[in-house]
Write a structure and sequence with these properties.
The structure is a homodimer of 192-residue chains. With 192 residues, chain A is mainly alpha-helical. Chain A has two domains: 6-88, Winged helix-like DNA-binding domain superfamily/Winged helix DNA-binding domain (Arc Repressor Mutant, subunit A, Orthogonal Bundle); 111-174. Chain A is 60% helix and 9% strand. The first copy, chain A, has a two-stranded antiparallel sheet with strand order 1-2. In chain A, helix 1 (6-17) packs across helix 3 (41-53), helix 5 (97-107) runs antiparallel to helix 6 (112-139) and helix 6 (112-139) packs antiparallel against helix 7 (146-174). The mean pLDDT of chain A is 87. Chain A binds a DNA duplex (28 and 28 nucleotides) through helix 1, helix 2, helix 3 and strand 2.
DNA sequence: TACCGCATGTAAACGGTTACATGATTAC
DNA sequence: GTAATCATGTAACCGTTTACATGCGGTA
């Protein structure tokens, strides 16, 4: 598994928001290319065909004069069920950032509690990761390779900031009211 | 490309440090599993065979009584050249953390200037990434999906801490002397 | 006229995992 | 005795990328 989740699930989630053509999906994913690398057509179209085959989506073919017809895909009842199951399953352990982001992007379309659960799940995993990194660095002696030490330190720094972001965000999202005086977010752009 | 670099290059770099068997490599990589996921035997052994085939490594077969023989792989002259070329090439643009970490781990076995160049290269890429993320978040209006906003904010927070880590580390490594009074590293474990 | 965006798709290659296959040695 | 570690490898499978194939419409 390249990212434990495969784009198929993610595409399904996007179609749950609104029906789209393959090209639309590609365009949207491209706009998120700073978060997750968008799949090529070579995997996107086959993925849609597979979803269609499995009855998780339907397609409405809109023929156009002298052009290839547009194919608008919509999620089906069964597709919705599969998606819900996927979103609710305990999140493949392991700490792939991409898999987390995919679910995060979709999560707000589901329940608020689901979103919180997802963030808490990530918190647990990052905390475990951080702990392991700390233990690994403690074992190091002066003989340890410089590159290795730097690499561990780097990843540890990232894990630490991830944790504090998660804590901050969980705080904000947990106490829903008071849109007044927002807590200063790291980028000052997220207002819940 | 799964990670733009393929384990083959990385293995080659590890063999440049010291000759090892496939199993040795696996053991070492496992100890770094918190940084990069270590390959399975199913890709490790074929990778070694491929390197051997290409003349980038040699193997010394050490037969042992009634056991499978150990096979100690060593890097060759040509292998060293290929490795050097790989280390010096401008680093596949794109911002794969794994690819960066692999090179970082190997970099200290090369020149000190090479290490610095590698960190600076990363700095450039992360800075560009951060800028793009900021621009993306600025475009967002209230209509923007909550999950998307959170995802961007999350990644932005990570990019920001990466940048400050890189700056801090470049500072420390650039002025080589004065091992006295170390700058407080984030984990307090990295003393250069 | 030449290129870019729209819009769909296929085929070959690649890089990797999982599961399988074998078998000795050591530690509980 | 049974499980884990040492030690090597192969074969089937999976998901993805790259390159190929086609063709219209707008624009620089």
């Amino acid at each position: 598994m390249a990212s434990a989740v495969s784009i198929r699930c993610f595409i399904l989630g996007l179609l749950a928001r609104q029906p789209m053509s393959g090209y639309d999906i590609k365009r949207f994913l491209k706009s998120l290319s700073w978060l997750i690398d968008s799949p090529s057509f070579g995997s996107l179209y086959p993925a849609l065909h597979a979803l269609l085959e499995g009855g998780l989506v339907t397609v409405e073919v809109i023929p156009r004069h002298d052009k290839p017809p547009r194919k608008i895909y919509s999620i089906t009842e069964t597709g919705g069920q599969v998606l819900r199951e996927w979103m609710e399953q305990p999140v493949s352990s392991g700490i792939s950032l991409k898999a987390f982001l995919m679910r995060l992007i979709l999560a707000s379309n589901f329940s608020h509690v689901g979103l919180l659960a997802h963030l808490r799940q990530r918190r647990v995993e990052v905390a475990a990761h951080q702990l392991a990194l700390q233990q690994a660095t403690e074992v190091m002696d002066e003989g340890t390779d410089l590159g290795e030490r730097l690499a561990f330190d780097y990843v540890l720094a990232v894990a630490t900031v991830e944790l504090s972001w998660l804590d901050r965000t969980l705080d904000r999202l947990s106490q829903p009211p008071s849109p007044v005086e927002a807590t200063q977010g790291n980028s000052a752009t997220v207002t819940v």
